[in-house]
Write a structure and sequence with these properties.
Helix content is 44%, strand content 16%. The chain has 355 residues and is of the alpha/beta class. The structure holds nicotinamide-adenine-dinucleotide.
Amino acid sequence: MTTPAHDTTVFGRLRADGAEQVLFSHDARSGLRSVIVVHDTTLGPALGGVRMHAYEDEDAALDDALGLARAMTLKASAAGLDLGGGWSVIIGDPARDKTEEVLRAHGRFIATLGGRFIPVNDIGTTQADIGVLGREASPVCDSGDPSPMTALGVLEGIRACLRADGADGSLKGVRVCVQGVGNVGSALAELLAAESAELVLADTNPARAAEVADRLGALVVAPEAAVHTECDVLAPCAMGAVVNDVTLPELRCRIIAGGANNVLAAPGHAAALAARGILYAPDFCVNAGGLVFLEEQILGHAREQAEQRVRQVGARVAEVIAQARRTGTTTTEAAVDLARSRLRTARSPQTASSV
Ligand code: NAD
């Protein structure tokens, strides 16, 4: 059956995204309204964030959940994890509407999925909130902040990019601009400082930027200056769509590799970066360290083993760059191909050799 080009029905959007299941939930007593997307469970249970946000409308909430769930499927698959992709959103202002009743109601709806969706905190929720969900649903990811491991994976991804760019992978004297020094960005800045990189930091919260810069001896630039700061590596660690039609001509870096999700505003920007000679480490590939760590926690493995696996993010980034160069595609296309081919193999092992 073919899908009309712009089928905006709910099932049309599920088909376009390849999503398995969407659960819309309402709890009259607490006022909860939530959407849970189980995007793909071919490789394992769908792990994804719980985002609480005052969405403009229900369509915006569904769109966000579908897009983020799909990205989780790609991330888990490209990283070689036995996890699927999913996401959930609670519609509401976390400052005003987040109550124990709302969280527990969301937890009860997650529980109806029988372990097909494993929640972790995201924007608008904390690990303590996920602990509250855990009173109703199991398993949940509520122990151990994944951000330092996301940062460690990004560090190894940057090293892989430097090597692919002809350097030896040493960070000494390499000028890195970290855009956003929150959980991931500050941890990345610390790792880079420990390897004597030259740091430029930017954050919309000036006090936070100043605190991290003082501690690490870094330079601070205005948030809007980060994208046109002259540097070897631009590491986006805040919001997405950092590379867009406006910023593209202004970029003055050789490499882009950071923790942020959805760095490219549109798929076509991957080719535009390549045309400008800027090496791009695909976001879902280079920021997978936190997800690797969460799988290690679910498996009950020790931290040292988790760290070792997280460091392999560098090898994945190197593999994707090499594949892109071999096939004349962009690094993003190579990373998506890597993720999809693993999914195809898992879906039909008997035809694996022909994939
Ligand atoms: P965070 O909220 O702790 O940090 C984000 C920081 O960016 C904040 O300090 C904020 O003030 C700053 N910021 C916001 N807009 C900015 C702008 N325009 N310019 C400069 N700074 C700006 O979030 P986080 O957990 O560090 O996550 C950062 C990014 O990484 C997000 O896109 C997130 O989705 C992604 N990510 C995080 C993880 C993880 O393990 N936490 C894993 C994968 C991807």
